[in-house]
Amino acid sequence: MASYLDIDLLRCFLMVAETGTLSRAAERIARSQAAVSMQMKRLEEIVGQPLLNRTGRGVFMTVHGERLLIHARRILRLHDEAMAELSGRSLSGTLRFGCPDDYADAFLPGLLRSFAQLHPQVMIEVVCASTPRLLTQLDRNILDLALTSVPLDTGHSVLRRESLVWVGQKSGSEDWSVPFRLALGDPDTLDHRAAVTALAQAKQSYEIAYSSGSLSGLLAVVRSGQAIAVLTKAAVPSDLAILSKATHLPDLPQIGLTLRMDEKRASPLIRAFEAHARTLLSAL
User: Fold this and answer.
1) Cβ atoms within 10 A of the Cβ of 125, count?
2) Does 3.40.50.2300 match the CATH number of domain 91-157+256-283?
3) Where in the chain are all domains bearing CATH 3.40.190.10?
4) What is the pTM of this model?
5) What's the pLDDT at 104?
6) DSSP characters for 20-81?
7) Mean pLDDT throughout 100-119?
């Protein structure tokens, strides 16, 4: 008898992957932990491969699990899109979504356009700010959902990884000398912390020429040639340059992107947008 990938099993698998534990996945889909465990064993039997490594700290994807996860997100997105279109259950309402400034140009147009095609009656209010400011607004229920940046060593389940890079003017991009003049975000932002930590570890002197939560302000300073900045590689404007190792600037770490929301008050609309964003951003 031929095996097939059951939608319910894939949805359960996705919840396990996103939450990192069987117990939290069980809470999200309103089933017992034993039932979730049985579903994961059934899915492993169907694909004929181990999908999860179970430890005392939770569950982790095997190589086969990571591969299936890519397919599961795509299958579930297409399934939900088809059901919404054919059944007429298009969502409506207003969603308040937060996004860091440096990801706005790279990710927002495609994300908002594709969701609007599925649910044209939904109004999405977008707030662009640094991750610490977005988290504050989430805590105060000002936002429903936010895309945020996290260090890779925090244990968060990340949608994608992004490289941090040094950025300066295209002309004279190799002319920087010590002390390096920096234009950085607020002291609690990842770009600021990564830059200061990397330079301190490399024993390179620097000075903060400009520090602000305004990305446009940072970019203006960089374009003036007065300082260099730290951005994610995907967010570097075409008129600026990623500085090479010839500048003797230290390497910067990668960071992760994750979606945050309050699970207890997440409406069907919030969950639908979260699932759509997770699928789209993971595939880019």
Assistant:
1) 11
2) no
3) 91-157+256-283, 161-254
4) 0.68
5) 86
6) SSHHHHHHHTT--HHHHHHHHHHHHHHHTS--EEEETTEEEE-HHHHHHHHHHHHHHHHHHH
7) 86
